[in-house]
Write a structure and sequence with these properties.
With 182 residues, the protein is mainly α. It has helices spanning 3-65, 71-96, 105-140, 143-181.
Length: 182
């Protein structure tokens, strides 16, 4: 084999390698977008569930507690759940508005960071509402209701932490796509 033939073979192998690298790059980008899309779909589904369930939960719990607590506390209780549902609706619509097909990876990550920040801001707002509300419920409750409030609070905190970590994991998946891209 003379040097000219070797050069031709070398160029042919090099062009095949470049084609393979381009195909691999496209495949990795599709995998990354699919991962982000599925995290986005999970977030949207969670927010959709909560904005649907929370008002119903608040109203049902209030009807059950009517005979034990003053009307003002019950109205505040329903308002708390409705505010939480409205926030979840806002987050649901925001997450749904992220279009991984037309937005770049950096833009998707920026939007995910924005809605993650909004999620944390909402948690602070809701904690500021629920702490005095639960304190008032605890003050007006009889001994058996206090036990129920404590047990419900412990279970609620445990479930809330599980949901919180799931939501944050999905946000992390959406945001980490940008780091993978760099």
């Amino acid at each position: 084999m003379d040097p000219e033939e070797m050069k031709e073979k070398w160029n042919e192998i090099n062009s095949r390698l470049e084609n393979i690298e381009a195909v691999n790059s496209r495949i990795l980008e599709h995998i990354k977008l699919d991962k982000v899309k599925s995290a986005q779909e999970r977030l949207a589904l969670q927010y959709k569930r909560f904005c649907t369930i929370l008002p119903i939960l608040g109203i049902c719990a209030s009807f059950n507690a009517m005979r034990f607590f003053p009307t003002g506390i019950l109205i505040a209780f329903i308002a708390f759940f409705c505010i939480a549902a409205a926030i979840d609706y806002y987050l649901w619509q925001g997450i749904k508005s992220i279009d991984t097909a037309t937005m770049g990876v950096a833009e998707v990550a920026a939007k995910a960071r924005l809605y993650r920040r909004r999620h944390h801001q909402a948690q602070i707002l809701l904690a500021a509402i629920v702490i005095p509300l639960l304190t008032a419920l605890f003050i007006y409750a009889n001994d058996y209701s206090r036990i129920g409030i404590i047990i419900g609070g412990v279970i609620g905190i445990a479930l809330g932490l599980v949901v919180y970590f799931n939501v944050m994991r999905n946000y992390k998946t959406m945001i980490s796509a940008e780091a993978d891209d760099i």
